[in-house]
Amino acid sequence: MNEQKIMVNCALPYANGPLHLGHLAGAYLGADIFVRFSRLSGTEVMFISGSDEYGTPITITAEKNNKRPQEIADKYHSEHMETFRNVDIIFDKFTRTTDAEHVKDVDEFFMNLLEKGFLEKRYMVSPYCRKSNRFMPDRYIEGTCPYCGYKEARGDQCDNCGRTLDPIELIDPVCKIGGERPEFRETEHYFLMLNKLQDSLLEYLGTKDFWKPNVLKYTKNFVSDGLKPRAITRDLDWGVPIPINGYEHKKIYVWFEALIGYITGAREYSTEIGNPEYWKSFWLDKNIKSYYFIGKDNIPFHTIIWPAMLIAHGDYNLPYNVPANEYLRFQGEQFSKSRGIGFTVNEILKIADKNSLRYYMASILPETGDSDFSMREFQDKVNSELVDKFGNYIYRLISFIDKNKLSIHKPEKLSGENKKILDMFKEKFDQYSQELYEIHIKRGLQIWLELVISANQYFNNAQPWKIIKENKEECNDILYTSLKIAQYLILMIYPYVPTGASEVWSMINNTVKIEGSTFEKLLSIDEFAIKKQNPPFTKLDFGEVINN
């Protein structure tokens, strides 16, 4: 079931504003849970993301704030890194597309495709602002989507239906900066000849029947409509330079160059750990599976554009799985950084701890459809499940052993209910592992919660507080079984709430840490060092926030 080595990449967030809960739900939390589970399963993982810093969202933010784009990128790159650390999302490398190494990688990729005939110069019609006397990037233009009627569609994509667009397709287009209707003028650019790659792409997609139905359906519908050449350069000042003389006033467009950041991040990480060739064992070995955790709006770029680019290049691994999530909604609307809908991660961390936030967000991940964020549900779910059920089980067990100054040892033989429940836990753990291996994050959490309920029922029915007066050896067997149950529960919740789980683990074992070890090794431990302390999970009380 488990692979020896995998590569996990996360969509590069635009460095133009704070991360909100929709970002966590869309890409990053699920990826981190999957990575932690995979490492505990004994799999070697390279985990990469980074800041997308050349996108037009950065220049829009810069112009609105009278700043240079680099200032905006610097600010939010640092902020994003801190935010991820604050919620225990730890990448091997969080790269930047403004890094010099990234420019080198983009240059190589561009020239490779040009030499192979997959890039061609063509003319296109682009929006032009007479007021500022310049061509406007796609994202500077907004209007009504011609496919679904959404009135705030961008010139490159509609966030509502997910369609990729050209600005000229928009109904009633206007410039976001000046508010005027743009002109459309001819300009010369380099195009990625997607039409030449359609057959190879369809053959590749034919092997992906295990992808999420929503991802596969969207992708196949997009390709079956026929792929057309797509411009990969723009009339911009901010971006990766085109590595050809005579194109100094144009730049490589963000949707092409940012994807190459996954390769840059892998190379940079390899250099940082003193093994510069390490990245090749992930990117050049065709047997290595690569996973791309993204949000719904990134589907076409990762299931069509990026595979097409990689096919054209010829050297690199194609995506194995693209487990894109749908949207997180708040009060009926999609979380949006640009429109200020919902909460930022840092806002929530002022009133809730990271263990609680990760737990609740994992339970509502929009894996197969949009999901809703609710402050009341957040509070109630954490208090009922993480604190009352799991925390209480651990506290009762540890307190009883500590109060009676017991030293628990492994019985010569377990029988009856003790053996029965541990056999059941082993079976359920295998089910949990299969669910997480298939990236069913919510199902894995549901299995864990069912086991927490079973653990409490077992402890209540076994009544060690009575048995200790009658048969100390039988009481030892009950408590040993209860501690083995605790092992399962702690290790299974670790990918979801790593800091909290590690603290609980230290209450039963202070010699071996979870991080850096494996399920197999940790579940084989039969000696326990009990340390009484309050579990790290506390009840939430949002008070008036719930009603606002």
Could you name the CATH topology of the largest domain?
A: Rossmann fold
Major β-sheet annotation: 4 strands, parallel
User: What's the rounded overall pLDDT mean?
Assistant: 94
How many helix segments? 19
Strand content: 5-15%
Number of domains: 3
Report the CATH architecture of the largest domain.
3-Layer(aba) Sandwich
Report how far the terminal alpha carbons are from each other.
46 Å
What form results from the Cα inertia axes?
Answer: elongated
Structure summary, number of beta strands: 17
The helicity comes to 40-55%
- What's the arrangement of strands in the largest beta sheet? 3-2-1-14
Poorly predicted residue ranges: none
User: What class would the helix/strand composition place it in?
Assistant: alpha/beta
* CATH H-level superfamily of the largest domain: HUPs
The Rg value, from CA coordinates, equals 26 Å
CATH class of the largest domain: Alpha Beta
